[in-house]
Amino acid sequence: MRVSFSQLSGSTGFEPTFDLTAATEMALIPVCCDGGTAIEFGEPSDKCRVKSILRVHNSSFHFKIAAEADIGLANAYIKEYFSFEDQEQGLLDFLLSNEFFSLFLDETMSYSCGMFKTEDEDLKTAQLNKIYSLIDKARVNNEHAVLEIGCGWGSLAIELMTRTGCSYTGNTLSEEQLKYAERKVKEAGLEDNIKFLLCDYRQVPCSRKFDRIISCEMIEHVGHEYMEEFFSCCESLLAEDSLLVLQYSSMPDNRYDKNRRSSDFTKEYIFPGCCIPSLSRITSAMSTSSNLCVEHVENIGIHYHPTLLRWRSKFATNKQKIMRLGFDERFIRMWDYYFVYCMAGFKSRTLGNYQMVFSRPGNTKALGDHPAFPSKPKFS
């Protein structure tokens, strides 16, 4: 028997616990339940580009969704209460080892949004495009001292030195990342001008000022209450004619307060304590705690879907290698859900990813000779 969601809710008085309107504009999702009933979410239309079948394997699925909304959906997927059978294109931490991340990231070990010039561009090239974009927007030259807040595995440090010959300092909280980055820098013969610190960004020594600060997808881990402190700290480390360049994932302003006060899948399972900021949260923190102003804004969020798609594909290919590291099927499904969850957010433009440039007013030394900020072609 096949019924529509509207028929189900109208005949039973059942009300959904979360809004499916936006999702069903892009997908037609029949939910196949025990006993042969199919509940169809969405209607066939020109907007409907994906058709998926959600197959329920355990009746507890319904209770999880009704009682726990999106967290329940995540739990139900991890526990294998349901699965997707897509007819077109498949189902859409610092404590983990370098080896684990290497099994789904590209050779640069960049755990952030890439930038694609073409639809079929490989992930490494897209990540280098992103790195070059940040370097270009920071306008780094060989006389600059650059600080990277959240240096990760050191890929931006190596590219910065190779392209500009600047002096580089980066910080991380991960001993695993630190050892990996130091090894890669030594292999490249760049250790004389690259220094990594194992410390919080607030503990970076203020004995010298930096001409440029770059931070790529780290501010999401700062927390709502500490955004002002982040900008205040950055300004205290910046030289007179300097620039701050950030890349970060973003939440729409009208959803930010509700989201930060509630839990969701990523905060529950992947990044405990993270806070995806809105654009206005960033600018308000900047204006109330520093003398900085915004010089450039670009939303590259459309590039995150293909980035995540490639991570998920490589993760699936290396599933057995990941399990040999000691992870079980539940862990595999949790990460698979994480990729899909984020892909949906960026594909639907619910989430964004901004590159922003900040400066103090009147900074003609850094900005005066440049008519515009460089920008990469948009993925389409």
UniProtKB/TrEMBL annotation:
GO terms for molecular function: methyltransferase activity. It holds the Pfam family CMAS. GO terms for biological process: lipid biosynthetic process. Gene3D superfamilies: Vaccinia Virus protein VP39. This is Cyclopropane-fatty-acyl-phospholipid synthase. It comes from Rhynchospora tenuis.
